[in-house]
Automatic annotation (TrEMBL):
This is Phage integrase family protein. It comes from Bosea psychrotolerans. Belongs to the 'phage' integrase family. The lineage of its organism: Bacteria, Pseudomonadati, Pseudomonadota, Alphaproteobacteria, Hyphomicrobiales. Keywords: DNA integration, DNA recombination, DNA-binding. GO terms for molecular function: DNA binding. InterPro entries: DNA_brk_join_enz (IPR011010), DUF6538 (IPR046668), Integrase-like_cat_sf (IPR013762), Integrase_catalytic (IPR002104), Integrase_recombinase_N (IPR010998), Tyrosine_recombinase_XerCD (IPR050090). Residues 318-470 form the Tyr recombinase domain. Pfam families: DUF6538. GO terms for biological process: DNA integration; DNA recombination.
Length: 470
């Protein structure tokens, strides 16, 4: 098996692209694995390449942070960085600055953020992060710097002031005034010989370390693998946003900045903005839980995500959550008439039977899609399906029996189960036991197939059965 790949690889069966990279030997003990592998969740090669590059940067930042700590810059070094920003702006736009109104607008934007810092530091710093954070990340990255939280805030403020001064100089040039800016000489040169001292390495206070140790405990108390996957995605994105992996250096302002960053992001799969509900219930919830666990276990002094939330407005409801009778009938007819073609037998069987099982039982798609042969049995004169956490993931963690409708029996579902091999009916676990990855892939394929029939995006193609059965 190839353990390190510089480009995405395509799954031979699903066509979905994946990221795979060998974990460096010096980090394998800390991470508990020899290989990092994650779905890129797209079949489009261009999207896969972009997602691969972004994820590679996240992973390298994470591994780099595990090897060392963050840095604290001197006041002189911070001023030198701000001076570079000033000089770069003048060099880029000084010869042809355009209209003065544009630079006045830039000054107003920066003034608003700086004024907000005086009243509400977290809110003001979040505004600065949104305006100049990405550029600052690139500038620090090119120098190989991972700065601590206090340094980050000081650099943000000084860079904002430098940009405000540069905008003023460019506004004057746009009006024909090219006289020297007397304040330009205030910036010192960067002194590489005065290397900043590294602070305490992240170690067990790294975001990834806290996630790993939290999961060991959470897994033992019954938390689901899907929760771990969701939290991992949040941590990956947060580490990439921060540019480091040190939880002790995270401030409330950076959490607010990440919240705003996520709200401005586009979901690569749906091509739509990330919803406020997703940011609140997934990202902020994960950070609050992990930082809270760190505080409770004496890893961190405080929870920087505490109290940060999003007030959600009441959603407009323009149709029922469940399928209409016409939609349900169309889905069931499509399932009954589905032709196998080139797809795998288990995928074909899922598209044939899962919609009917969901319609008649009201069970979740995942609960039905992970059924095993031994979960279908006859009790007395009735056929039943046994929905159990032993087969995969069940939201309530409680096993239950559901009697099959006589129409399912007449269609031949018990006979189908009798003919197939032991094990899962509709999917094949990746390593003989873990069904989470294959289950999610199957649910995605079922949703795509249902969407071919039910075009209305206001109803979820898999979850619609939960809000009414035939």
């Amino acid at each position: 098996m190839v353990l390190s790949m510089a480009r995405p690889f395509k799954h031979p069966k699903t066509g979905v692209y994946w990221f795979r990279k060998a974990v460096p030997k010096d980090l394998r003990e800390a991470l508990g694995k020899t290989e990092f592998i994650q779905s890129l969740r797209t079949k489009d090669v261009a999207e896969a390449r972009k997602a691969h590059a972004e994820l590679a940067a996240v992973i390298e930042a994470r591994w780099g942070s595990l090897r060392g700590g963050t840095q604290r810059l001197t006041t002189e070094q911070i001023a030198a960085l701000a001076g570079e920003v000033y000089q770069d702006a003048i060099a880029a736009y000084g010869a042809d600055p355009g209209e003065p109104e544009g630079w006045e607008g830039s000054q107003d934007l920066l003034e608003d953020a700086l004024d907000t810092v005086e009243v509400n530091a977290a809110q003001g710093l979040a505004k600065l992060e949104k305006a100049i954070g990405s550029d600052l990340d690139g500038r620090l990255g090119r120098r190989g710097l991972r700065v601590d939280a206090d340094t980050r805030e000081r650099v943000l403020l000084q860079v904002a002031l430098a940009l405000h001064r540069a905008s003023g100089a460019l506004r004057r040039r746009a009006q024909g005034d090219y006289s020297p800016d007397p304040g330009a000489s205030r910036f010192p040169e960067w002194k590489a010989t005065e290397a900043p001292k590294a602070v305490t390495p992240a170690g067990k206070t790294s975001l990834t370390g806290i996630l790993a140790d939290w999961w060991k405990e959470a897994q033992a108390t019954g938390r689901k693998p899907s929760t771990h996957e969701s939290y991992s995605n949040t941590v990956d994105g947060f580490v990439a946003f921060l540019g480091h992996d040190d939880a002790t250096q995270v401030t409330p302002g950076r959490v607010v900045g990440f919240k705003d960053h996520r709200l401005a992001s586009i979901n690569p799969r749906t091509k739509k903005p990330i919803s406020p509900k997703t940011v609140k219930d997934s990202d902020l919830s994960a950070l609050k839980t992990l930082f809270g666990w760190g505080v409770s276990n004496h890893r961190l002094p405080s929870n920087p995500a505490a109290g940060i939330t999003i007030k959600l407005g009441k959603r407009k409801v323009t149709r029922p959550k469940g399928f209409t009778d016409e939609e349900a009938e169309a889905l069931l007819k499509a399932a009954e008439g589905h032709q196998q073609g080139n797809e795998q037998p288990k995928t074909f069987a899922a598209k044939r039977w899962v919609p009917w099982l969901c319609a008649y039982t009201g069970a979740r798609v995942g609960e039905v899609a992970q059924l095993r042969k031994q979960d279908v049995r006859k009790v007395g004169g009735y056929w039943v399906i046994h929905i159990t956490p032993d087969a995969g993931t069940v939201k309530t963690d409680q096993a239950r029996d559901v009697v099959l409708h006589e129409h399912l029996v007449a269609q031949g579902f018990p006979e189908f189960c009798r003919r197939v091999k032991d094990g899962h009916l509709f999917l094949t676990p990746a390593d003989g036991s873990d069904v989470l990855g294959p289950l999610q892939g199957l649910k995605n394929r079922l949703a795509e197939t249902a969407r071919d029939t039910v075009k209305d995006t206001r109803v979820q193609p898999n979850h619609g059965w939960r809000h009414g059965t035939v």
